[in-house]
User: Fold these one by one.
Assistant:
Number 1:
Amino acid sequence: MSAPEQDRAPSAPEPTAQPGGKRVVVAAPRGYCAGVDRAVVTVERALEQYGAPVYVRKQIVHNRHVVENLEAKGAVFVDELDAVPEQAMVVFSAHGVSPAVHAEAAERNLRTIDATCPLVTKVHNEAKRFARQDKEILLIGHAGHEEVEGTSGEAPDHITLVQSPEEVDALEVKDPTKLAWLSQTTLSVDETMETVHRLRERFPLLMDPPSDDICYATSNRQAAIKQIAARSDLVIVVGSANSSNSVRLVEVALEAGAKTAYRVDNAGEIDERWLDGVEQVGVTSGASVPDDLVEGVLAYLEQHGYPKAVEERLTEENLVFSLPKELRHSARQEAVAVGDLQPGS
């Protein structure tokens, strides 16, 4: 996994107000992160290489439009492995799975491709390392989220879930001198740091992870919406209801000063009444959202009297993850074939 290459972009100029004062600002970065892109391409390549059906445990990423598009290509999404026929091909989602799921797949002779985001795998490895050191791990995250279930499964006897700063005071630990914390990768940066601060006040010897667990894309999207929220009468976040990072973007926008903020799956979910009296609109999207859904929202706003959107970019994102090993051979073949077609090659 290569390190993120992120260069601070110069501050965008203040967009010129249109007649009537209306303005639309779209935040960047937004949309697909490296882990989501890798996961979606994994399913598409698996379908090309192995043929339909390819089964996927849980939603490959938390966006219903992405899931529906992959279903149309032959992917079959299931909640658990018992719905997958023996010896079939199954892809594990970007959110990661526990060792128990890998074991079940092996017992049922399933062929597997693991599309877990490498940044989630990093958290799994940290959990295993802390467990080997006999540390009690305080995992900051949301109960029931696939990522939390996968991480907890790596060290079930060592992990205690902490869902909010308010839960810290009631925590009971075995040994306050042998504590470490980890977090779900898609949380609010500010709330997570508040939880860590509260934990450290109670447990001064709390050990940090080697590096931040909240993924670069989650952090960047939250920082980007903060940059425009205070100037927005309305912020529209494109993303599905089960997307933790999309839901957090709504909360971050409101905390940063947006007068109102709503999450929509697509332009069809916008309530025209939200635009009453609104001049300044900010738009962004979660890390599992294809950009055409954002374009649909911007087109909707233009149809309702708003000018063409101006983009304000906080930073550049150049991180790319390689595909799972089962698919790299076909990807290399494709790269060679494309190279053979280049002039002068």
Number 2:
Amino acid sequence: MESILKALFRGQLHPDEIIVPSHPEYRPLSRQIGAITEKWRKELSDELFLELEEYSDLCLSANSLHVEAAFIHGFKLGANMVIEVMSKREELVTHAASGVSL
């Protein structure tokens, strides 16, 4: 397996393209969205459906920006948790006087 750092440097990491939510409600919601979209495609004029698609694209773009911000925030939070734990690792050693260090 290639190093994560190498893959990141080479632009080979695209988690947003491979993540599929495992929540049990995801697929039924996705099917429901598809069914409603098809219903609107049949019922609306081409012009109105195009406007609906443009609106949907704007919503998806806004949601993508939110997901990106949440990812960055979560990553930073996780990294800060590791820093905090590692900076206080000597507190985890029950017998600090023994000279054993982690």
Number 3:
Amino acid sequence: MTALIQTVILALDLYWWIIIASAIFSWLYAFNVVNPRNQFVGTIGNALYRLTEPALRPIRRVMPDLGGIDISPIILLLILFFLRQFILTTIYPALV
């Protein structure tokens, strides 16, 4: 059971970094730092979008319009942090 919990924690940590990479990429794309016509850049952007959008979409639906500021990645990071801490402090010690 410990291996399963450690695998879930690793998956949460990886998804944490994917969300951060997606946010940074969206800023680079918005400010024309990266070339949007480059196929490699488009592939990375598309992959990050497909990985993060299913988790961000429900949050964006609930959030009010903040005038162009998207804080849904921050809320998702907080949810992931809470879930990770819940697993580490509640579930994992009960198994050990």
Number 4:
Amino acid sequence: MKRSIIYLSAICFLFIGTTALKAQDFNPKKNNYLILSKNIRQIEPVLLTAHELAAEDNEEYGDFYVIICGKTVKDIPNNEDLKRLLEKAKARHVSIFVCGISLSKFNVSPEDLPENLTIIENGILYGLQLSKKGFITLTI
């Protein structure tokens, strides 16, 4: 009986130790960033952040994505300030997406959106999928 407990304990410790090593070994080749935002007014500071991170990361800088979700999608159509920021985002290689579920919920037509904006079906799901791929995420 004592041997069974010792063997079982050893197997558990071996498994836990191996799991910890796997987590420590994860090292993406690039630093990829994702911002999930419920406020389009945050895009300008996000672009400043992306610029600083690109300079800081240098060769290790990867992708920078912003997903706009929630009620703020109502503020997107005919927003000249946003159009200007989208051009700035494009120049800085920042991809901006909008949640299709939010568009539907708040009755915003995709035809009313600027061309530089990409619609994804489910912003939260997409954000979680990117997190699983190693993106550094922040919700604001």
